[in-house]
Structure formats: structure tokens, C-alpha cells
Write a structure and sequence with these properties.
The structure holds 2 protein chains of 2 kinds.
Chain A (H helix, E strand, L loop, with lengths): L5 H13 L7 H5 L3 H6 L17 H32 L28 H33 L3 H13 L7 H4 L2 H9 L7 H10 L1 H6 L11 H6 L6 H10 L9 H11 L2 E3 L12 E3 L9 E3 L2 E3 L4 H13 L1 H15 L6 H13 L4 H10 L14 H12 L6 H11 L23 H18 L5 H9 L5 H9 L3 H10 L1 H4 L2
Antiparallel strand pairs in A: 1-2, 3-4
Helix pairs in contact in A: 4-5, 5-18, 5-19, 9-14, 12-13, 15-16, 16-17, 20-23, 21-23, 22-23
Chain B lengths: L13 H4 L34 E7 L5 H4 L8 H5 L10 E2 L5 E2 L4 H8 L3 E8 L7 H10 L11 H8 L8 E4 L14 E3 L10 H10 L6 H19 L9 H13 L6 E6 L14 H20 L6 E7 L19 E6 L30 E2 H11 L5 H8 L14
Helix pairs in contact in B: 6-12, 9-10
Chain lengths: 499, 408
Amino acid sequence: MSLPSNNDVAAAIAVSRFGLGARPGELAAAVADPKAWLKAQIDRKGADQPPGLLPTSRDRFQAYLAARVDAQSLKREAAAVAEQEAMTAPSGAMGPMSAPPSPGQDMAAAVPVGQSPLDRLKAERRAVQKPLRDGIANEILARAQLAATTPAPFRERWALFWFNHFTVSTAKAAAAALVGPFEREAIRPHVFGRFENLLYASSIHPAMLMYLDQERSTGPDSVGGMRRNAGLNENLAREIMELHTVGADSGYTQMDVTEFARALTGYSIGVEKDGDALVGRPLYRPQLHEPGVRTVMGRRYADTGQDQARAILADLAASPHTADHIARKLAIHFVADEPPAALVGRLRNAYLDSHGDLAVVATALIDAPEAWSPSPTKFKRPYEFVISSYRLAGAAPADPDHELIQPLTTMGERPMAAPQPNGWSEQAGDWTAPDAIVKRLNWSAAFAAVHAPPDAPLQVADAALGARLSAPTRLAVMRAESRPEAMTLVLMSPEFQRR
Amino acid sequence: MIPSSQSPSVQSPSANARFALSRRGLMSLTAGFGLTYFAAPALAATAASKRKLAVIVCRGAMDGLSVSPPLSDSNYLALRGPIAIRPDQALRLDADFGLHPKLVGLYALAQAGQARIAPAVAIPQRIRSHFEAQDLLESGGEQLYGVTTGWLNRTLASMTPDRRVRAISIGAQEPLVLRGPAAVDSWSPGGREPGDLARVKATLADLYQSDPVLGAALASGLATEAQAHMMTVGQPIPARDERGFAATAGKFLAEENGPSIAVLSLDGFDTHAGQGAVNGQLATRLTALDNAIAGLREGLGPAWSQTVVIVVTEFGRTAHVNGTGGTDHGTASTLIVAGGALKPGGIVGDWPTLQSAKLFENRDLAPTLDVRQVFKSVLADHLGVDRHALDTTIFPDSASAPPISSLV
């Protein structure tokens, strides 16, 4: 065994820290010039779209509206039945659990004839939900197939970072149907463009409006607000400032949040009566917009209708606080839970000097010497771990429920279902609890039993980890009794768990 | 520029969205459950290690004004409008406060002197970011970013060798409140071992020998998994079954030489729109909370008599209903203490009232109690944690937030 060259080490870092783990042959493609290999993946046109014909937000919004109407009538019926049953049931009887089906969960079990009316209604409810659930599962599968097979894994990692930055989640039922279209329509096209455009696309997308309750927010003094006695909802305004742009430590006040929320009123979603072409699309309703001049973080914004919020978004995007916030988040995601200040500074300057050009920021990340430290400090999140395992095996998932949703839920990262608007944690401490490691081990063994490639295990380990494969892991792989055992050990090795 | 609606009729998707699905899904079909609560005989001298503490963190800012509606506060109904819990709907605790009608199990506990509410509790800083507030709640710091470990982890570290106890995190992710140098168990449902992995486990133990994290984590996780397998054999717990989930937590606590502290999280309390009242989005989450408390009670069995449960959230919600039938980020909220080891009594702390002059920043319920005061009193009086450690290391610089008396 010869000592690895500098390029061998750099290639092993490029495919894991910047990419999604090597597929067979990928290290060989990266080794000549690892930085150039990464930079070639930056594409002004944006990130790749997942394979297959996936529905638009318009299709999904219509499906959501249809399911909602059915669900409401079923719910009323079920409540009546439940009341009746409660009156006739013996006291102290245990009720069924209240946990509703969650997207992607396999709930399609048929109910045998002769079951109670309540069970029948629950089955009908699941049937109403099925198209929505299947739609989410299809999205999850398509993007995982893209991630597992792409020859441009840095481009995909960059897109996944921005999706998590602008989290919308199926954890909120009202937004669930639109999460997939959101990533494809609002995020992927803009990830190597100007941040301001990405921010705008995210902020006005129907998925974000539903997820952060903006679709109901109404200017209290607008025509519509006065007529319907409706008012503000400040959720989106706050999260744009806190999570998407300047950050919670940038000094804005409650009044800034409220003022921004007022400016955002009117941003809405087209429904049938707005015309077929606008259903499920961003739509500005001037009659819901709060009239007046707004002041946000010391700047005044004239009442220019929909341009008022857009001007605020542009200023938020240009703020040095936003540059700081994004530089730090990128450094944490790609390099270290506690990133070197020099790296954060480089990314910040790249952002400010280029006026938020994300292709320039991506280049600065690749060029940053701090990003190439040989000792890996990032622990893979479950999604990264599972995707990198498929890439190591040269395989791709085919069954969304059993190969992605169930195992990733067990490992704590249900796909497209972050529990809160700040997205999935980037801190190792959130993913290394004892139970989480056991879950990874059990999944690894089950995965290896199916996917262990026919090649010699050591060859597989070398192709995946290259210069990062440690001597102890090499020894353990050589001593393994079977291919699945060897592959389980590679997947669970300290170096494969990190990047 | 996006298309602009020119329709003169004022109707937004809100008209449809009024019927939006609840955050948690379509509906709750709970038909109620029966449990008999009994007052356990007081045990005069329970060894500290037999005392149990369960903390349920309700993430997303749980609306205290709906959890424990202030029935006699003359401003409540006007401020809350359609989302108010009216006196005829609430489960009445006393002349002034009730419980949300979905909290039937908790109400039965309160009637038995085993549950109390603290209606105006807050973290030490006035923050309206969920994530910063959760950090402060769980780190136990006086200021943001002052402390990076959790107060329960520092509690473990502070115990003298003769009363050393363990803690367990229930759920796929370990919450900040338990994070830190002291080793903590964890468990979540699902993902059984496929076949016999004895060889792999032994090899990994070798591979992880010099790893800063993985070796200890795997060993602890495997031990807990083996115990869970014995406790729940034949009855796998669905991931979203709050009652079963909490019952398993209770069983861990009740085990001979089991952990003394368990932490669970519930999410989905961020009710900005369509919060609902007796039914609806928040009601569904409160049913889940009630199920979780009942599950703990069930799993603990006789050990319930030596248990304190704390239910806490990062902050409350605006006193006024917002323009979309919900509430925005506020300040004080309700904290619940329950358990067989609790001293019976009325509400904990003062009620600041909802008069507009008394509201914090003219919008939120003002706090009358620092959340650390409740935590400290439970740790001191129930688990026997040293007062000096409480004031200095567990809750740094917190001498000005003393424990309250007569909780345990």
C-alpha cells in the first residue's frame, strides 16, 4: 500500500465533505483536480431536477383542496359516530389513539367487512389522504434517486442545504402537498443565482405561504380586512427575518416584525375563481394589502403595493447581517459544527462583494483552505448517511416507504418533514444519541444484507472512502466473515459516519 | 412581479383555508379513555434514587391561555374572541382557573391533588424566537449563548456519588436539556435488530475505542435496547402513539435501577392560524399531551407515587387573538406540574391579569415566575439536589431566582 498523495486525500474529502459520498469510480474522476471537479458542478441554471414527471404546485394544490373538502365531511361524520359510540361504550373503555396518519406512513390497510363504523370512516379518511401521501412519497423517492445517482453531488448538496435553510415541511398538513413542488420550483432553479431571487421565490411560493400562515394574513385596514374583520399574522415575517435573512441576533424589534408583516399582506395563492392559470400559484391581492408607509430596521418603504415587501426583501438580502448569517450556516453545514472564523469571514466577504451571488459564494467555499482540513468534524445526518450508503453500493432506492421514509423516520430525520421552521439540526450532538447509533447499526445491517456488492469488500471500501479509509477499518473489513458483515462495518466505521 | 388579483370581490383563499387541515393531520378520533387514579400512601423516606422526574417539553410555544383559561379574568373573553375557552366549556379547577376540555386525564389528576398549574411562567430573557427560547429553556442559562450544555445534564453531574442517578431521552433526537458531558441513555421506537449482530457489535466496539462519541453511544444504546426489548416484547410502539411512547418512558423509570429522569418532546404547538378552541388544532395537541401524561402514569405504575412530571414550553402566545384565528409569539405561558409526589395545592405563582396596562409590551401575558424557580424547587425538594449547585452551576448566576416552596 503506497502512501496517499495530496490529491488522493483531497479527492476523498471532495466526495464526502462537499459531495454525498463516492459512487464507484467517482474518486477516480475527482482525483486529477478535486477543486476543479467541484467547481465544474456549479451551474448558473440551478440544481438538477429529480427524474420523472412530477406535479406542479397547481396540481398539488387542487388535490389538497379536494382532499380537504372530503376530509371535512368525513370528520363531521366521524365525530357524530364517536359521540354515539362513547355513549354506548362501557365506561372506562380505552379509546383508539388519536395520532393521525402522517404523510408517507403506510396506512393503506383495507378494513375487513364487519368492522365498526368508526373504523370504516378511518379507512375512508385514509383513502382520501392516499393521493396526497403518495404524492409526497413520490417526491421523496425522486429526489433520493437523484441524490443517489448524480455525478454532480456537490450541486445536489448545495440544493439540499438551501431547501433546509428555507424549510417548509410536511409536518404541517396544510403545506404538505406543496413541499415537493416548493423545492423544485422555488429552490432548485435559484441556488446558484442571486440570494435575493432565491429569497423572493421562497417567500412568495404557495408552500411557504401555507407553511408559515401568510395565506391568511390580512391588512386590518385594507378593504378586505375591514369587511371581514380579519387581520395580521406575523409568522412568515418573523421567520424570514430570523431564519432566512438577518438572523435573531441582528437587533430587529417586535415593531420591525409587525411592520414587515403589514407589508407582506396581499401575498396570497390563486384559487379557482382567480382563473384556471392562477390556481395554486403566487397571487397578489391588493384588496388585502395593509395601506401605508412601513418602517423596517430603520428604513422607510412607501406604499407601492406588492413592491413594498419586495423592496424590504431586497434590503434584507443585501444586509451584512444576512451575509454573516448565511456564511456561518454554510460553514457549519459543510465544514464544522464550530467553524473557523476565517472561513466564515471568507464566505461573508464573497457574499457581500458579489452582492449575494451564490455561485461566487460556492466557489469561495471550494477555494477556502479551512474547508480541506483532513480530520473530518461533521457527523453525517441520517439523510446524508443513507444516500451515501446507496452511492457506496452503486444502488438507488426504489420503494419510498420502506427504503426511505420508515428508516429515516426511525433515525430521526423523516424526509421533507422537519419538525420546526429552522429545519434539521447541523449539530452532531443532535444525531449521536445512543439510540440513534443503534438505529444506524440496525439499518446498516439490513441494508448490507440486500445491497452488498459482489466485489471484494475491501475494494468497495476503497472506492467509497479512498484515502480516508483507516487502517483499523481496513483490518476489520478483511477479517469479516461475509460480504454483508464487511459492508456493515464499512457503513458504521467512524470515517463513513463522518464527512 | 407576480400576478395581481383584480377581482373586486374580497375573498381570499382564507375563505377556504378556514377549513384547513390541522397541523397534525385530519382529525382526532379519540373516544376518550378511562383510568383510575388513586392517591398513593405517602412514603415518608423514599430514597432519592427512587424518586422520578419526567419533563415534557412542548415545542412551538404552547398557548397557556387555552391550557388553563383564566375564567374569572374579565378581559379574557374579549381578548380571545372565537378561540377563548368559555367558563361553561372549561374543566373548572377553582374560582379563577380551568383546564382545556381535552385535558381530561390531567383534570382527574388535579382533582386528586396530583396536578397543579403555574399560569404565568417564563424563561429569564424576553425572546420571541422559538429556537433561541428553547435553547435558553433547556440550557438553563441566564443569557443566550452563555451555556452550551443542558441543565438536566449538569444536574446529573452535580449529584454526589451516593445519590448518583441516570437520565434517559425518549425520542429519536437527544434534546439540549440532557446534552453535556454526563452520559445519558436514549430510546425511540422502531428499527429492530435484523438477525444476530453479535460479531459486528464486538468489532465496532474495537473500531470505536478511540472515537470521542461513537463507542460510549453504541454501548449505552445497545444496553437500553436490550432492556426495551424485555419491557415491550410483543408490543411494538407506533412512532406517533404518544401514550405508548410515554408509557415506555414510564416503564424505563420504574425499572429496578432504572433512570431517574426522563425527557420527552411534543411538537406542533405553534398555532399562528386556525388555533381552534374546544376542538381544532391546539385541542388535538392537548389531547396528545393528555395521552402522554396518562401514558407516563400507566408505565410508572406504583412508582407514580414517587414521581413529579413537569410540562413546559418555551414561551406563551399573544393575549389577543390575531387576524387569522390564531395567536403569535408571546411571553408567559402555563407550566404544569403533576405526579404522585406533588404536594396538593392551588395555582403556583401569581396571576398578573390581562388588563392592558399589565400586559408585557402591551401584547403578552406578563410572567410572575421564572421557569428556573420551578425547576429548582423540584430538583431540590424532590431529587435532593444541592442548593448551591442549583444557584451556580446547574442554573448559572441564578441566586436571584430562588426555588419556590411547597411544590413537593
